[in-house]
Amino acid sequence: MTPELLFSLCNSVAPLGWILLLVAPRWKGTRYAVLYGIIPLLFAFVYLGIIISMGGISFGDFGSLQGIKSLFANDYALVVGWVHYLAFDLFVGSWILTNGQKHNIAHLLLIPCLFFTFMLGPVGLLLYYTVRAIKTKKVLHENF
Question: Membrane spanning segments where (predicted)?
């Protein structure tokens, strides 16, 4: 498969997971597809498959911006990096949803957190921690 096709396929699946988190947070299908990890695991398999097909990855130079840039010079490596973002952001979104439900935070308050996690990863996580701290009156929690 070409890098463009892999990118398009993964980019088509990711929004489905996010839509499920946003509009059907307690639906059985959402639990299986996103919360139990089917979509993030699918991304993990794509990630691993690309790495294997590339003959492994060069860990290169993580100590400089130029070193990181050179790691992503190959289009397949660039797709691997993007799939990494898709998998982990969706995993964090799943955690936000389940943790928010555990702390009885209204879903309407979770929606902006999920949106920003989808669009800006760490910003959504920071927003969630802020919302949770305000709602529970605790900044840090045991067991997250």
Answer: 6-24, 33-56, 76-97, 109-131
